[in-house]
Amino acid sequence: MQPKHWIVFILLGAIWSASFLWIKIALEEIGPLTLVAFRVLFGLLTGLAISAALRIPLPRDWKTWRIFIILGVINVAIPFFLITWGEQSIDSAVASILNATVPLFTVVLAHFFLHDDKITLPKIVGLLMGFLGVVLLLSKDFKAEAHNSIIGQAAVIVAALSYAVSSIYTRRYTADVPGQTRGMLPLFSATAIMWAIAPVAESPLIIPQLPMTWIALLWLGVLGTGLAMIMQFYLVHEVGPTRATLVTYVFPLGGVLLGVIFLREQLSWQLAVGAALIISSIAVVNWKKK
Q1: pTM of this prediction?
Q2: CA angle in degrees (0–180, nearest 5) for 15-54-58
Q3: Which residue in 253, 248, 177, 240 sits closest to 5, CA to CA?
Q4: What is the DSSP letter of 206?
Q5: CB-based contacts of 165: which residues, under 8 Å, 6+ apart?
Q6: Which residue, 15, 137, 170, 199, is the most exposed by fewest CB within 10 angstroms?
């Protein structure tokens, strides 16, 4: 990756690492559906503001809109809800590390569905290292009293698979759309879906009262969705889905540190070693023989 790609990569990793903490904070007052509804709404408004400032027109053909409606479901609505719902029963640190399985799924899917992102030996080694880290991480929760925790972990893993599928779909079908609008267009359908479901499923809809909840929602919406989606789609097209989704390997370190510092979550040796293995695989996957 070029320096400009690494800058976007690191910024995106930093923003999304903190997102797991803000989700945990917002869940103290509102439900997961309401949280996601506000998050995607603020993300959409941010994307619209950026597009207006740059004078980028919205697409007018149905084929393009159909692609991004699908992405709004599989890349936003489903994974956002699953991660938020899962964090009701698992630590934010665990959620951030489980989300780092995205490139593990992507590296396999990309091999079969993309011609320029094939599996190589370094990628296979990185895949095994990451998988070992995830297994080690989950080992501390494999006990009877952790049934709800295991369900929460499963929800985040399904969200990771959804992200992997959508990254492949993005690379194949959105190359002709202006970069600044790629990350914003899926938020139209995601916002419509979440605001149709949340008021009914979590009736009566709770409007946040605490200032900290609004800060969390603004962070998640403006930075964690509006700006982050644009950066994510940029990386997918610039460096490919496998390397772009490696940004999720930055989450564990940030998620663990923020969870331990601000939420007093336990820093176990499984978390530490599991995170180290997953993060170390970044170098392996990006290694190229000279």
Answers
A1: 0.83
A2: 95
A3: 240
A4: P
A5: 74, 105, 109
A6: 199
Measuring CA to CA, which residue among 94, 11, 45 is closest to residue 217? 45
The DSSP code sequence of 212-229 is HHHHHHHIIIIIIIIIHH
CA angle, corner 156, sides to 96 and 113, nearest 5?
100
Go through 242-265 and write b for each residue having 16 or more CB atoms within 10 A of its CB, e for each that does not.
bbbbbbbbbbbbbbbbbbbeeeeb
Looking at the chain, the whole-number percentage of residues with pLDDT higher than 70 is 88
φ/ψ of residue 100, rounded to 5: -75, 0
CB count within 10 Å of CB 14 equals: 15
3-state SS, residue 44: helix
Q: What is the pLDDT of residues 212-251, one digit of tens each?
A: 999 999 999 999 999 999 999 889 888 888 888 878 777 6
Between CA 232 and CA 109 the distance in angstroms is 18
HSE-CB for 74 with a 13 A CA cutoff: 16
Are 235 and 66 contacting, i.e. CB atoms less than 8 angstroms apart? no
Closest by CA to 81, choosing from 152, 169, 25, is 152
The DSSP code for 173 is H
Question: Using the 8-state DSSP alphabet, how is residue 242 labeled?
Answer: H
* Whether 171 contacts 243, CB under 8 Å: no
Q: Name the nearest CA neighbour of 92 among 18, 179, 164, 198.
A: 18
Residue 34 CA to residue 199 CA, distance in Å, equals 8
CB 208 within 8 A of CB 30: yes
Residue 252 near residue 96 (C-beta atoms within 8 A) = yes
CA distances in angstroms from 99 to 95, 167, 182, 240, 277, listed in the order given? 6, 14, 22, 18, 14
Residue whose structure tokens are 């797991």 = 20
